[in-house]
Design brief:
alpha+beta, Aminopeptidase, 2 domains, 13-stranded mixed β-sheet, two-stranded antiparallel sheet, globular
């Protein structure tokens, strides 16, 4: 029987019981081998077993993500991977992350924590945070920020509101008690990230009719740009054309770190596996891309149904996932929507939103999540409200001084 995310699951209760009282010592060890990284990854299934909404990852995907030889993030970052044990049993995990590109781009000395999973025991959480703090402080950092697994281009933020549904594709999830563990340690809010839900029937009334439609038609009549679908069969050419837009469109956003060419190609290759070109739009002026939007099918629903886990052969999990995917993908996540700065007042963003909603109507989706959006991004939050969206999940990024 599934449990509500704000109630301790049987696995969490069992882990706490095995760990014993908080007076039992906590040992911290760094993961240095592939086998130790595997233990780090598999601990998630202890925390979230029987959770009603957690979407487990593919073990092979997480192994590649944490492998310095496979993830280009490690080309400009240092990562310490730690597990906490009590009486020989793993009771928590954490990453300490030094992203040199972040500090070069923002002129900061900020380190990050991520990969945080922990039983509901503050003494364990404190030992983990102390370890990450000391690791970062020893490398000259003055602030610890997170959760970030491993950067703002990956999973970013702690879920603090919206525990009544599963996360959509590539969004984080965590037990509610993590809020208390993090805030008790002394972390304070740095920024909130918003997830808006836009029901397709509401959007139809708000966008495909009335004022928004008139605005879009007026923009299109000016005829100064075109909007087309991406062509995934010419994938590498498309990526080359869009590279310059990605970093230029988001460079002023809080927390943004430009991707290297290797990172961008790696990200695109990963997304291509489940992308739908009908939901990817490119805005062009005189044949040159100046903006784009990407909405991803929400494959989390069939993935959770297939339920990847370390005890099941992954080929069998993937077969189940492909079977469920045929009928269970009924929503999208608008993951990227950006224009080069000089074109932001052109109305192209409204056109791409309009076309995304038209496609959603045609394909029978029930709605879409717009995420994540900085709470300070007034333009995007206004647009989300205009199209009938409501904030239904909130994620928080925390800071703590470590000098």
């Amino acid at each position: 029987m599934s449990t509500s995310p704000d109630i301790m699951s049987p696995a969490q209760a069992e882990a706490n019981e095995v760990a014993g009282a908080s007076s039992e010592p906590v040992q911290i060890a760094e993961c240095r081998t592939r086998a130790e990284r595997r233990q780090f990854i598999e601990f998630q299934w202890e925390i979230y077993r029987d959770d009603a909404y957690w979407v487990p990852p593919l073990v092979s995907e997480r192994e590649a993500f944490y492998d310095p030889a496979k993830n280009p993030f490690f080309e400009h970052a240092e990562v310490g991977m730690f597990v906490a044990r009590r009486k020989g049993r793993i009771v928590g995990t954490i990453l300490a992350i030094l992203n040199h590109r972040h500090n070069e781009f923002h002129q900061e000395r900020t380190g990050f924590f991520g990969g945080f999973e922990c039983i509901n025991d503050f003494s364990v959480a404190k030992a983990l945070f102390d370890t990450a703090r000391d690791w970062l402080r020893g490398r000259g950092m003055t602030v610890m920020r997170g959760p970030a697994t491993m950067s703002s281009n990956d999973e970013w933020g702690l879920l603090i509101e919206g525990f009544d549904s599963e996360p959509v594709v590539l969004m984080p999830y965590n037990p509610r008690y993590y809020i208390d563990l993090i805030e008790q340690y002394g972390f304070h809010k740095a920024m909130d990230l918003l997830a808006w839900w836009v029901p397709i029937d509401v959007a139809q009334d708000k966008v495909l009719k009335g004022k928004f439609e008139r605005v879009v038609n007026a923009v299109l009549k000016r005829g100064k740009f075109t909007v087309r679908n991406a062509v995934l069969k010419d994938f590498n050419t498309e990526i080359e054309r869009l590279k310059k837009i990605y970093n230029g469109a988001w460079e002023k956003n809080w927390g943004f770190v430009p991707l290297t060419d290797h990172e961008l190609q790696h990200l695109a290759n990963n997304l291509k596996q489940f992308a739908d070109e009908d939901f990817i739009f490119v805005a062009e002026v005189n044949g040159e891309p100046v903006g784009f939007s990407v909405s991803l099918p929400n494959v989390n629903r069939p993935l959770r149904k297939a339920y990847p886990n370390p005890k099941t052969p992954e080929w069998w999990t993937l077969l189940k996932f492909l079977w469920y995917r045929r009928t269970m993908v009924n929503s999208v996540r608008v993951i990227l929507l950006g224009l080069l700065p000089q074109y932001r007042a052109s109305g192209m963003d409204a056109v791409m939103i309009y076309k995304t909603l038209e496609t959603g109507m045609r394909k029978g989706v029930i709605g879409g999540e717009m995420s994540w959006i900085l709470e300070t991004n007034e333009d995007m939050n206004r647009i989300n409200k205009l199209v009938g969206g409501k904030i239904y999940k909130r994620y928080r990024v925390y800071d703590i001084p470590i000098v």
